[in-house]
Amino acid sequence: MAETTQLTRHIESYVDTSSSSPSLQAASLNAIASLVKTDVLPLEALVRELGVYLTTTDNVIRARGILLLAEVITRVESKPLDSATIHSLVGFFKDRLADWRAVRGALVGCLALIRRKSVLGTVTSSDATAISQSFFQYIQVQSLGQYDRKLCFELLDCLLEHYSDALTTLGEGLIYGVCEAIDAEKDPECLMLAFHIVQSLAQLYPDSSGLLASFAKDIFDILEPYFPIHFTHPSNGDTHVQRDDLSRSLMSAFSSTPLFEPFVIPLLLEKLSSSLHSAKIDSLKYLRVCSSKYGAERIAKYAKSIWFSIKDTLFTYLGEPNFSLNMAPVDGIGFPENEFVMEALFLLQQLIVQNGSLLTGIIIDDEDVNIIFNSIASYEIYDAIPVQENKKLHAIGRILYIASKSTITSCNAVYGGLFSRMIDNLGVSVSNTDSSPNDNIFPSQRVKFGFLYLCIELLAGFRELIVGSDEPALQYAIEQATCCTWLRNFSSSLFNAFGSVLVASADRCPLDPDIYIGVKGLQTLAMFHSEVFSLQKSIFENILKKFMSIIIEDFNKKVLWEAALKALCHVGSFVQEFHESEKAMSYESLVVEKILEFLFLDDIVVPFPVKVEALSNIGMTGMKNMVTCLQGMKKAVFSNLSKVHTNSRSSEVAVELLECYACKLLPWIHENGGSEDFALQFAMDIWSQAGNCTVFSTSFEEKGLLDALIRTMKLSVGSCSVESQNLIIQKAYSILSSRTNFQLKELESLPLSPGKYNISLTDEGIISLFASVVIAVCPKTLIPNMRVLVHLFIVTLLRGIVPVAQALGSILNKLVSTSNNAENSSDITLEEALDAIFNTKIWFSSIDMLQRYNGTSNGKEIVLSDICLGFANDKLLQINAICGLSWIGKGLLLRGHEGIKDITITFLECLIPGTKSALPLVMKSEDQIQDPLVMKSAADAFHVLMSDSEVCLNKKFHATIRPLYKQRFFSSMMPILLQLIAKAYSSSSRSFLYRALAHVLSDTPMVAVLNDAKKLVPVLLDCLSMLTEDIQDKDLLYGLLLVLSGILTEKNGKEAVIENAHIIINCLIKLLDYPHKMLVRETAIQCLVALSELPHGRIYPMRTQVLRAISKSLDDTKRVVRHEAVKCRQTWASMSSRTLHF
């Protein structure tokens, strides 16, 4: 009884909408459905319990009762039901369709029953027919609301999908009913279903003489008003349907049956002349799809009309071609993207594929095509062709390109009908068509540009046809095709024609169309598949020779040189990709080997960077070519390294080659799945060369050789596996221990004595190179004798060798902690390394820090942090120590280690005078404590900590990086820095604290800054004012200005900005004429524009001041700044004094 009472309560809660909320109704419905689904409540019992609610004369209660039953059936669709129950339910809901007040429940119930899967019990065909008859008899779809109409369309759609055979018994009644239901529908979701229903009808009656044929015009008349789709629903409305969805659905309905052809195609052709953008585009799309569905026979009668429409579209909308090899596609000539042009060409290709003979015949016989052929015969260069004829020339070229790439039939037709006319009119001799071309000897007369242009389009189209023919039968058909014969006969003439263009135009710069056509033509001719069309070997090799002659001899003609190099790269990539073995041999001997000879050619006329660029680009055409180029480059590198001490030019050459290898070739090898063997061997060879002390016996700073070696070593090591890295570091350690003056065994004894070592250039080079290896290795790579190396690095970082400091930071970042000692591959743990760095005693003489330590001189033992605080009485040493400690701190910060706290305290002590306890031996005056260079180094240490480094401690070099480390450091440091700034009594100390804060702010993600924007804006403005004084601070100033810009444009930062609006505006006005960086001026103006969005009362009083200041920016030397100034003036000038809101 209790259960019955509970069920009644649920039913009444759902049925009586006046006494329960929607959420309570939904909960009651779910509870009832759960009872039925778990068999606690049989469905028959629910029907009995609902009896009075299903038959009552109260319209509202009856409608809710029927809907409750329908919704329960929907929710128990996975529950098996016997046929008798289903039949009974069908009878009930079918009859309820006549009850217009309860029609929603009836529709939901019928839909739930129709959608049931066969294994769970389904509606019979006779019941489906009965539902359909009742639906068409009682339901006036367009008189219902949107939701109920959608249910109607879903029910019709399901009936047609699952019970189509049963519905055919309805005869004309089905079609009449569908037409009546969908006529004048406007809702997007309902239309999607309505269009799909039309498709289902078309599939139900596919016969051209069937029932649908009599009603095709009626259905089309209903569909026609919807084309083109005019979509007015907001994109953020309740519907998820977009215009493109509706358009595709209508297109599917139009193309669903050939019976619509007499009505659809004329409509689409008519709409092509519309001024409405969507009508034109949709007409082209619909024509393509409908032509495919209707078939060649039906479309043939419209072929000429469609052709004229395509041609007119191309004549109107095709833009100027991009005569640049850097922008051009590999095949064909590149044009600016245009939707009309793309759709027109897609349609043309579809028609040619469908009926090639008919369309190509129309094209060849077209009046405009023949007029263009006759007119361009008069012009030798591109610039001489009139603009209108040029547009038509480009359009005809695109048409021929599509025709030649679509099918073998169409390709044969255009080659047979037009290619010979082009060759005859080129202006070159064609008498010896079968003879080999002269090697790089071209006729001096000019050729006709227009015909050569069209030849390229034909060649490109034919080549694409070949590339797309993977099947052997198709390849054989192409090989025997007429187009192959034509091209084979005239390939020599084409080579001479393209070469002649380059001879006549090579001195024109910048790049003109004639150069582009010459290079592009030779490139296309060289890139035909040998299996299908075998270009004569002599022609292919002469093409390569022509390009190589430009590379070697015409390096001063920049555009021509770049075009030839680009073409060589395309040809090389093609040869490698398609395994053209014979062409590959020619390419290797005539291009790759010649490029290497070019590299070693001792010619001061040709700039060496030109040679390196050619080598790197040719290498990147394929892995085999890359290996060859790398071998040659390595030989050149070590040849020049061996001569750096006698020839200053060798150092420059070595730097160029190392930069190319590290920045271009090595990343390419990695991206293309190359082996690490070369990187390993290259690194090992550098160390072998480093063993020869003469390599490092010259000054590196002038030529940047040491930097190049370090960068190359890091990138090579970083790309290797742990096993390879172990080999490299063992080799490096052996050179370090045997070829330097460092006595590694003595470093095991304490205290350390930096003054004991006079570091030579050789020692500096080798230890810097060794440090680069340590920076790049993986955490699991075994670094030998780590304890001694840590001591060595401490000694050498005090001499200002920055890579050593970076190596120490990397060691601390990657070392395993004591708690994970089982995973440690080193002889030292993180805790032991930290103890060695921060607690190792370092001996210094009070007389001369650099003197040799003999154990008798007066001196003092101090630790690294003491040196940072100035206890060594040497400013340069102090700056070096602070720099080293910053990189050590960065390694700890990235891994989230607590040791970063002590390091930041040390930096802060350097910024605040009088906070440290001085030792008697090195007691300093106030002036010494406040040395600005030391304080600047301590402030800049925060930039090292927070910035993303490219040289070390990044993912590329396998660093351990904890998520959100910047945000955590920012949160911990901001309160401290703000407090110290507030209490600072020294102006110099305050300025450097501002500098430290500026570094932290500018490198922190904006999300973290916004949370504290209210506190940070005032101090941020102080930082901006302080940083305007020194030109060296321009980048830091710009970074801080970007932070302010972020606060201004984010909703979370508006409150902080409103309170300080006047101060911010004054600060930004001062930056409008900042002379040292254009981006500062531009960003300051953009910030002023953003401020104009603040409440009117806050900013209006500053309006006159802003307009006066911004007027000066209108005359700025940079156009970008002037453009922003105009926008800013318009924004602020448009304000009025109306409605001040405070």
TrEMBL record:
A Gene Ontology biological process term: DNA repair
Family, per entry: Belongs to the MET18/MMS19 family.
Intracellular or extracellular location(s): Nucleus
Source species: Vigna radiata var. radiata
Gene3D superfamilies: Leucine-rich Repeat Variant (1.25.10.10)
Protein name per Swiss-Prot or TrEMBL: MMS19 nucleotide excision repair protein
Keyword annotations from UniProtKB, A to Z: DNA damage, DNA repair, Nucleus, Repeat
Lineage: Eukaryota, Viridiplantae, Streptophyta, Embryophyta, Tracheophyta
Any GO CC annotation of this UniProt entry: nucleus
Domain MMS19 N-terminal: start-end pairs: 47-315
Location (main, coarse): nucleus
Function: Key component of the cytosolic iron-sulfur protein assembly (CIA) complex, a multiprotein complex that mediates the incorporation of iron-sulfur cluster into apoproteins specifically involved in DNA metabolism and genomic integrity. In the CIA complex, MMS19 acts as an adapter between early-acting CIA components and a subset of cellular target iron-sulfur proteins.
Domain MMS19 C-terminal: 699-1091
